[in-house]
């Protein structure tokens, strides 16, 4: 035999030294060493074969991958006469593990990209040739969906010769895939994370994240050796959403150190502020007419302007708190220390519409006694911050809370209408008119608190912010607000019944409060002997039965009904309200269909309120309570809502509603109340001891 070893040129003079190149991986290895194309009918010597075995043993990471290829790789022959391939519903014919299928059907319209071909080859061992096409319905963001990939099946098996350059390219892609596989989180391939994981990490769905990256890519940001644009944006959103440190982000995304993470975050921040924020936040991005037409609820228009004016903008203004670290700079520490919260914080001012759309987020401002909410609001108006006065017009309505009361004069001087809840001014209870007016305001103003809650869902703002990050705080707040505006649904929308509810509320505001007059005329508020204690079962036939919707019509909201169960559970001393329980009721001796239910305050052990209800077997005629707000007929307080909820709805329920919250008091020890001093008569030696 005068044959030579193809790689090294050694004579193959005995059959024991000859090894054929049938193994695909051995053939790839020799092709890379020689930079030549090798066929299966060529041979190598034992020395070359052992060099391949030695290389595999020294590179264990590739060894497992090559063994996998040896056992299961499938290669296809790209047929020059076929220019379209069907990727779905095909048959399998396999008789050799080193061959690959072709999938043929001339009915497709979209050419698959190299990312899909590589993904299918390394995950399914099916080679898809360049130029393959598929239906566009199988694509999500220009990539094959997971379901489409799972349904791909081989059709035929053919031999394919690979050149040395092809082999080098395959190994390079395999190495890249291997390195990417070691990453804990990756945004580069949209298929690596599902929708829930994207929402958990970034607050955006997968499709919204892809759209956001496309918008950001039009700015100054560029990919680098450390990260792609998708990864940079993803890391920044993870920082806002999770509020974790740069060191932990470096660990999650396999980045060298926290300084590299800081540079990545800063690049993404600059790109987002330039390309995304101006179109989604600030008085310049939305017109006053759009706010009136698209972002004002029907019930707000009914309550604030009587439903007649269609040219009045209604906006809600409130400040929120962002807690920061203490500072060694004494001047900054004094101006950032809030005497009410007893800690350092900064205050941005949120300006939202009645649907929760954030028009502007101004600030942050300092928080000492000179920088209260009213002073901040006056500063914004007098400085015309963000051209707010150019946007507002005369007689526009600003809904504010009591903290902005000192800025009402400036608003009126600018011919703006300001609305806020009333003050007690040392009284025990609001008047009927004041209580009804305050309820109309809170019916509208709650939306700004929901906007603040959405902002704090980005844990970066809910946690204590490091002082080193304060330079970026305004930009980060703006980005969070724009994400809420652009990708999250409105916090509330107008409903068909809102106009009817608004008219009903306006009518109730004008009614006389008859039940309070009834109680005062019969001196029933303070004369306890006129009431007798009975069990709730004694009026079971006389009290009306109501649904949850009926209860909602009484409260004009859900807050009171959410609190109702807590008061009922405390009164019954159990969380199981479907069993035979003792729920005592005070019935009037003079007026049998008048009852009251003494209810412990949720905030004070010393205070007990007396919600009073006037009823028939068909309807609730009226109510009154001696709490701050319930001398009103427009909605009711939580104490009244709890009594009506239990007597008209809950006691008729049979399905137990498991509520373990009432058992939490057993998880910690409540200390015994022991006096600091002992009675000397109890001591044998008649000496007095004190506990220190």
TrEMBL record:
<feature type="domain" description="DDE Tnp4">
    <location>
        <begin position="317"/>
        <end position="485"/>
    </location>
</feature>
<keyword id="KW-0479">Metal-binding</keyword>
<dbReference type="GO" id="GO:0046872">
    <property type="term" value="F:metal ion binding"/>
</dbReference>
<protein>
    <recommendedName>
        <fullName>DDE Tnp4 domain-containing protein</fullName>
    </recommendedName>
</protein>
<dbReference type="InterPro" id="IPR027806">
    <property type="entry name" value="HARBI1_dom"/>
</dbReference>
<dbReference type="Pfam" id="PF13359">
    <property type="entry name" value="DDE_Tnp_4"/>
</dbReference>
